[in-house]
Amino acid sequence: MREGMSRFKSKFLSVLMAGIIVVGCQNKPGFELDFSGSRLEVIIAGQAYATDSTYNWGNVSSGAPIVINGTLRNKSAFGITMAGDQALTVAGTHATDISLAQPANAVIAPGATENFTITVTPQAAFTRNASISITTTPGNDKFTLNLKGYRYGLVLVKDINPGAGNSSPAKLALINSTLYFAANNGTNGIELWKSDGTPEGTVMVRDINSGAGNSSPYNMTQLGSTILFAADDGSLGSELWKTDGTAGGTSLVRDIYSLATGSNIGGSIGNSFAVFNGNIYFCAETAAENEELWKSDGTFAGTQMISDLNTTAGISGCYGDIFIHSNARVLFHGRDAGSGREVFKTTGVVGNMSLVAEINPTTGWSNPGDFFNVNGVTVFTADDGSTGRELWKITGGTATGATLVKDIRVGGGNSSPQYFAVLGSNLLFAATNGSAANGTELWLSDSTLTGAGTNMLKDINAGTVDSFPKYLTTMGSRVYFQACETATDCELWMTDATVPGTVRLKDINPGAGNSSNPANLVAIGSTLYFTATDGVNGTELWRSDGTDAGTYMVSDINAGAANSSPANLTPFGNSLYFSATTATNGTELYIYVPPP
Q: Within the chain, how many helices (H) and strands (E) appear?
């Protein structure tokens, strides 16, 4: 390697170690200038470069092409002829991002110059790699500009179903740095796709249900180096599949129910897959038993039923809501012949299964659900038959017994706790103490998770009417949520778990009686992303740093009053994948890369 290039790479690594350049998403994208001769130099923006170095063009806005006006100068005492069919040649994975305006002359006289223009239009976010080379004769001097960089902002990843047709990306799951999802390209039906955020890296993994039929993959879940999911190949019904991200590495794990109806992988309610001790756990149905709890390590032999919990013909023992308690037990909504639908548990050993607690005695159903971890304690909702649906908890690693936290709506009525979020040692949630009292409002349970420590935090919609807090999402020292001051004025709120600190963040759709209806809240670092309407631009993607001024629409994706209706918001580093709709492209996959 040439001495000059070695010095450049050493300098580059020093800069990298200093944290100025972020690998994969450089804040200051530009060109690495690679010289192999001393007679040629390039002038960009008035600066001459004749040795290995880096040219940065600065931050590039979304959708804005990068135009580089350059000049080649011959420093030698004799003419230089630029070889090849073109004076400048482009190569590399992203060569199509670059267009060239060639020098007028292929020969540069001693001391003379020739102008060229490079236009770079990155087609997707993240690092772009390509090179523009000039080879000259005599002497084979060579000058190369290596494109390194990205554009930030909003990018349509790929029009999977070309034109106005909808590919309708759904079931998004980010696994390592690859996004897996279900989509329809208009030819192969709803199949398994993957994306690295670029058009060429967004491809169908396999046409599992060959032709136009839908395999409708769902519950894409990482287990070691394998991704497990449920899909229907058109002949076996919905069964357990696995993939390594390639067509050849995508295969059926086991045909659990050997009928075309499938085994109904995942259960009928709640969380369908849970990972514990090298296995995924799920409900599945067989010809011999209705739905029961199964586990799989991704192999045929390692896909096993834990126990036939309910031996009564035609009645299932596993309904879903599978949850890992204290990293020690698998909990689920199940039913045996004597206890009705209650919380059951297993260590994962085949044959090991038992009742956590008979919350609703005898054959009554407590119908447990909404399992949520609060600093090692599992909270959930259940109905004991006398207090209605209330907040319960399970403590201890062995999950022995369950305790009512508080009868929030005193008597047999349901307080229906929901939208749980943790802020420090506090649990925040929405619940109602009855329409004759305060309606559905914001509640807090402190670290004790007891009746005394569980109280309404604030009556946002004062009196007996509801504020309906929804989508509680923790970011930093606050929880953000939607709440309504009247039935038709629902905006973005935040709380620091105190009464004075529970306030409306911004009136996005101004005026009494106008709602922005913020939803799909996702926190990435110190930025909150969500969907809302300002009454002018329809439902679009918004962001907030927790201040009024820092809360604004990211982009009017579907221009004007029409909705782009962003959905499936999925974080990727400091960026965001989601689906959105436009009149031109239909419902497709997008990525938003925030500015540095």
A: 1, 48
Query: Between vectors from CA 29 to CA 33 and to CA 62, what angle results, nearest 5°?
Result: 140
pLDDT digit string (tens) for 434-466? 988 899 999 999 999 999 999 999 999 999 999
Q: How far is CA 213 from CA 209, 248, 404, in A?
A: 5, 20, 48
What per-residue confidence (pLDDT) applies to 437?
A: 87
CB 380 within 8 A of CB 394: yes
For 176, half-sphere exposure in the C-beta direction (CA atoms, 13 angstrom radius) is 12
- Amino acid identity, position 216: S
Query: How far apart (Å, rounded) are the C-alpha atoms in residues 406 and 419?
Result: 17
Q: How far apart are CA 316 and CA 266, in angstroms?
A: 13
- Total of domains in the chain: 2
Contact 193, 172 (CB under 8 A): no
* Residue 130 Cα to chain centre, angstroms: 28
Residue 327 belongs to some domain of the structure: no
Residue 162 identity: P
d(CA 402, CA 416): 17
Specify the residue for token string 């939208």.
419
More confident residue, 546 or 287: 546
Q: Is residue 20 part of a domain?
A: yes
The pLDDT value given to residue 44: 84
Q: 572 phi and psi, to 5 degrees?
A: -140, 100
Residue where a domain stops, chosen among 151, 172, 200: 151
Is residue 330 predicted with pLDDT exceeding 50? yes
CATH number of the domain at 102, please: 2.60.40.10
Cα 105 to chain centroid, rounded: 51
Determine contact, residues 369/270, Cβ cutoff 8 Å: yes
pTM: 0.81
Phi-psi region of 415 (alpha: psi -120 to 50; beta: other; left: phi over 0): alpha
Q: What are phi and psi of 95, to 5 degrees?
A: -60, -30
The span from the CA of 293 to the CA of 21, in Å, is 48
- Quick one: pLDDT at residue 509? 97
Read off the DSSP letter of residue 22: -
Reduced to 3 states (helix: H, G, I; strand: E, B; else coil), residue 112 is coil
